[in-house]
Inverse folding.
């Protein structure tokens, strides 16, 4: 088991199920020790390919997927996913190369806003606001 | 990155949260950025993050050319 194997497995599980695997699940898959998996995840996260939970070292983000519920729900191919933000919600069908429905709401007034991706085209009426410039995205990626 | 109904909603949100207005893009630009960013298969061993020059090239292709999007 090397870091590339772990990264591929994490993405494979998340893309298929919409759910990020736990350290214990990854360890079972590779017949490896949990501590070794945790160290591998730390190295992958240091390379900014994953984001881990601060308290437990479990996976928080498998960009563009969120391992926890967010206000950016995505349905695609009969599977429920969550994006980390509206850009990542768009990233889900981009990565899966499938049609998708994104259910979210206006960041200001809370009005329901849906976005549809169909046959490679996006349909919706809103605007995307990036509060931070890209030079600051990784200063606090959870806030970003 | 949040999604808003209108420019006015963005301005109200920035005021409410005491945030300076950042970068705004259309949904179409966001989709193109998502395609450029997330289409490459991250399960592949050869996948790697883009260099700063490569990211700026993607931004330029999508029309994100204001100083807000500069990486240097």
């Amino acid at each position: 088991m090397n870091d590339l194997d772990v990264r591929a497995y994490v993405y494979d599980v998340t893309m298929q199920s919409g759910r990020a695997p736990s350290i214990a699940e990854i360890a079972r898959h590779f017949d490896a020790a949990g501590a070794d998996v945790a160290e591998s995840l730390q190295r992958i996260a240091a390379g900014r390919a994953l984001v881990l939970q601060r308290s437990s070292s479990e996976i928080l983000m498998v960009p563009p997927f969120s391992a926890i519920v967010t206000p950016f729900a995505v349905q695609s191919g009969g599977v429920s996913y969550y994006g980390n933000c509206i850009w990542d919600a768009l990233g889900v069908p981009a990565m899966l190369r499938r049609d998708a429905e994104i259910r979210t709401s206006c960041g200001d007034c809370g009005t329901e806003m849906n976005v549809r991706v169909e046959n490679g085209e996006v349909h919706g009426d809103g605007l995307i606001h990036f509060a931070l410039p890209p030079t600051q995205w990784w200063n606090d990626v959870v806030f970003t | 990155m949040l999604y808003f109904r209108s420019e006015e909603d963005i301005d109200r949100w920035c005021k409410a949260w005491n945030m300076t207005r950042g970068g705004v893009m259309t949904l179409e630009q966001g989709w193109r950025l998502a395609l450029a960013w997330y289409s490459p298969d991250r399960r592949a061993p050869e996948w790697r993050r883009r260099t700063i020059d490569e990211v700026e090239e993607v931004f330029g292709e999508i029309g994100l050319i204001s100083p807000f999007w500069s990486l240097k």
